[in-house]
Amino acid sequence: MNTLDNSRIPRHIAIIMDGNGRWAKSRGLERSMGHQEGAQTVRDITEAASKLGVKYLTLYTFSTENWNRPSHEVAALMALIIESLEEELFMANNVRLQIIGNRSRLPEFVCEALSRCEQNTAANTGMTMVLALSYSSRWEQTETMRRIARRVKGGDLRPEDITEDVISQELSTSFMPDPDLLIRTGGEQRLSNYLLWQSAYTELYFCDTFWPDFRSEEFYRAIVDYQGRERRFGKTSEQLTQE
To answer: Which residue of the set 44, 66, 102, 193 is catalytic?
Structure first.
């Protein structure tokens, strides 16, 4: 943590929290135990990110593909999500909760708990924690295309006026900037249908650590790695020095 440059903390960090099941399997435990331990990591990273001054922390919590998992595991995950919505954590760290994803597929009791937590934390002015629930980038982009098509059909928008900005404004993430840094734990090196449009110029960080073991020290290491990179956005190094 002492090597961090506090003037270059990523404004928005997205995380693919991978490895809960493999963490549990390596210890001879049920997969649900890995998810429970992973929930503790969420609390640890939330506190660490908030203290560093990160403005947005987006966590890939449950993808649309995860609905294909065994029903008992899905049910356990839904229950764990509710148990993990500790308003004390949000209030103590001045954190606001927001949700992105297809809520229509979530159980009613989950939707109610999420909405209640969103409302109760809406006035918090510190970091915004965004949970991607029943989310995938292809789902999001399909819904965005439908909304834009309806605007064109209704005469509110001409096809030639559809720009990158128009598309970005129709995405479920329109309220926040694109991620500066995307972290994936668990050893896999892919985006798995997560924030594909938004991550066009995001810095990617992959590590072998399973999510339940990914605590603040590893989180700081990822940010230090990010701070050592040159973000050119298509420009040359010489152009950046002249700006």
So the answer is: 66
**Is 120 one of the catalytic residues?**
no
Taking CA atoms, 176 is separated from 132, 155, 162, 237, in Å, by 13, 28, 20, 27
What does the alpha-carbon distance between residue 135 and residue 138 come to, in Å, rounded to a whole number?
9
Residue 18 appears among annotated catalytic residues:
yes
Question: Which of 2, 6, 18, 161 does the annotation list as catalytic?
Answer: 18
Confirm if 99 and 133 have CB atoms less than 8 A apart: yes
pLDDT tens, position by position, 80-91: 998 888 888 999
2-11, 47-56, 231-240: range with highest mean pLDDT: 47-56
Please state, in angstroms and rounded to a whole number, the distance separating the CA atoms of residues 141 and 160: 19
Structure confidence at residue 238 as a pLDDT band (50, 70, 90): low
Cα 28 to the center of its chain, rounded Å: 29
Cβ contacts of residue 44 below 8 Å, gap of 6+?
A: 215, 216
pLDDT in tens, 93-104: 999 999 999 999
CA dist 205 and 211 (Å) reads 14
